[in-house]
Amino acid sequence: MKTVTLYTTPECRFCSSLKEYLGKLSVNFTEFNVIEELDKLDEMKFFSGGSLSVPVTVLNKGLPDQKVLIGFQPDALMRELR
C-alpha cells in the first residue's frame, strides 16, 4: 500500500471531502495543516510546484514513484491507490 500525505487547511471543504473519501476506503494518511504548521506550507509548495491550492496529496512521498495530486481528485486517487 502506498503512503498518503495530505496538506490541508481547516476550512477547506475539498480537504474535508478528501479525508472522508479516504476514510471510506480505509486508507491511512498523514495530515499536515498548513495554516498551523508553516514549515509544512513550504513543503507543500515544493511538492505542488508553488501552488497554494489545497488539498495537496503526495503518494509515496520521497520515493521514486512519488505522485502529487492537487485538489480533490477521487478518480485519479483511486487509480493511484491500486
How many helices does DSSP assign? Answer: 3
Number of strands: 4
What value does the Rg take, in angstroms?
12 Å
Mean pLDDT, to the nearest integer, reads 96
Structural class determined from secondary elements: alpha+beta
Determine the fraction of residues in helical runs and give it as a percent range: 25-40%
How much β-strand is present in the residues?
A: 15-25%
Largest sheet, in brief, is: 4 strands, mixed
Shape: globular
Distance between the termini: 8 Å
Oligomer: single chain
Strands ordered across the widest β-sheet: 2-1-3-4
Uncertain segments: none
Element layout with pairings:
Blueprint: E1 4-8, H1 13-24, E2 30-33, H2 38-47, E3 56-59, E4 67-70, H3 74-81
Keyword list:
single chain, alpha+beta, globular, 82 residues, four-stranded mixed sheet
Structure at a glance:
The protein is built from 3 helices and 4 strands, in the order βαβαββα. With 82 residues, it is of the alpha+beta class.
Description of the structure:
- The protein has 82 residues and is α+β, with helices and mostly antiparallel strands.
- Helix content is 37%, strand content 21%.
- It has 3 helices and 4 strands.
- It has helices spanning 13-24, 38-47, 74-81; strands at residues 4-8, 30-33, 56-59, 67-70.
- Strands 2-1-3-4 form a 4-stranded mixed beta sheet, sandwiched between helices.
- Helix 1 links the parallel strand 1 and strand 2.
- The longest helix is centred in the first third of the chain and has 12 residues, at 13-24.
- It is globular and about 30 Å long.
